[in-house]
Design brief:
It contains 4 helices and 6 strands, in the order ααααββββββ. By secondary structure, the chain is an alpha+beta fold. A 3-stranded antiparallel sheet has the order 1-4-5.
């Protein structure tokens, strides 16, 4: 037993026992303790966390932000260009669709023009009466609502783009080429001329030139006004 006691005494002074309270809440007061700083053992170097310094992070963040802005502007320009192309495509499709519809309507109305000519002749001869007249009026009204327009009437100014002249006269009663006879009406559907009007045209004709005024005879030996002098022996 004695040697063991001597070994204990010769080992030197014992290290003090350190008790650290790592509780966040004080059990007596209920207060929250601040987190304890990690202690670095004696003789050990402080641990440095790997990571870029403040200067390095700023230098790298600026080029990254500029690249993002450049890509954003490029994508925005592409989107705007795509939207403009799509809008133009929609307008072109709508325009072509409307042209096809108007062309189909004009073709159907063009096939009915001989029927309208028969109705016009029947009306001129007084045969368009009763129920027949009521049906004809409904047909003409429906075609006019669809866009059909008749032209070619006496007194209109002659227009070679819509009038086809088959007769020509002259008269001083008109100031220029004027439609004075309508043989067949013309029709247009919207801006499209389906058929030109057959007309007779009267052009302006100048009137007769005014007669020359008579020269007054000489009175009392005076010379005539035209300056002529009778030679002797002439009456």
């Amino acid at each position: 037993m004695t040697p063991r006691h001597s070994e204990t005494e010769g080992s030197g002074p014992e290290e003090p026992v350190v008790v650290r309270d790592r509780r966040r809440v004080d059990p007596q007061t209920g207060e929250v303790h601040p987190p304890a700083a990690e202690e670095t053992p004696a003789g050990a170097e402080p641990v440095q966390h790997a990571g870029p310094s403040l200067g390095d992070s700023v230098d790298e963040a600026v080029p990254a932000a500029s690249d993002i802005e450049k890509q954003l502007s490029e994508r925005t320009a592409d989107l705007q260009r795509l939207q403009a192309e799509y809008a133009n495509y929609r307008k072109r499709v709508d325009r072509d669709r409307e042209a096809v519809v108007q062309g189909a309507k004009a073709s159907v109305v063009g096939d009915l023009l001989p029927l309208l000519d028969d109705l016009q002749r029947a009306e001129q001869h007084g045969d368009l009466t009763g129920a027949f007249k009521a049906v004809a009026d409904k047909l003409v009204s429906s075609l006019e609502r669809s866009g059909l327009e008749a032209f070619g009437a006496e007194g209109e100014e002659f227009d070679p783009s819509i009038h086809e002249a088959v007769q020509h006269n002259t008269s001083p009663d008109v100031k220029g080429p004027t439609v004075t006879l309508v043989m067949r009406r013309g029709y247009r559907f919207g801006e499209r001329v389906l058929r030109a009007a057959l007309v007779g045209v009267t052009d302006h004709e100048p009137g007769d030139a005014p007669a020359e005024q008579p020269v007054d005879p000489p009175v009392g030996g005076e010379l005539p006004l035209d300056g002529s002098v009778d030679e002797p022996g002439q009456q």
